[in-house]
Design goal:
globular; six-stranded parallel beta sheet; Rossmann fold; alpha/beta; 170 residues
Amino acid sequence: MSVLVLTGSARQGSYTRALGALVADVAADGALAAELTALPFFNQDLEGTPPAEVVALREQVADADLLVVITPEYNGTISGLLGNAIDWLSRPYGAGVLRGKPVLAVAASPGEIGGARAVVALRTVLGNAGADLASAALTVGAVAERLDDPALRAELLAALDDAAPAAKAA
């Protein structure tokens, strides 16, 4: 099962990116998606002929059996960077690459609640885009301290395994 990981932070040394790399490592056939910072701001005027970066990301998502979307918590919600990527992936309206795509939503934060508010927002946006959401989401609190924790690897593997039936059915 191929797993593609989208991370919603622009900072090179972010915990979200580190968690994304860990997910890609834990997945048997996992990979990080292209940098979301390369995407232009969503512009409906460009839908007919989307920029090459958008086409490339859409192809990566289409080719994956399972998409893992990881967001930091910015002001209680998802990052603008990730929201922009989801906007591009949800188009054209009603036929975007997210429609029917098995997706595991993940949030992480340095705080103890692990982005619980952000993962709710992420699941809402992905659901509105037509994604086939895994029944459970994953939140990773105290992410900075947990990146080297073997228990986190086990949690990630369990979450991927739980999301796999949806991916296999798609």
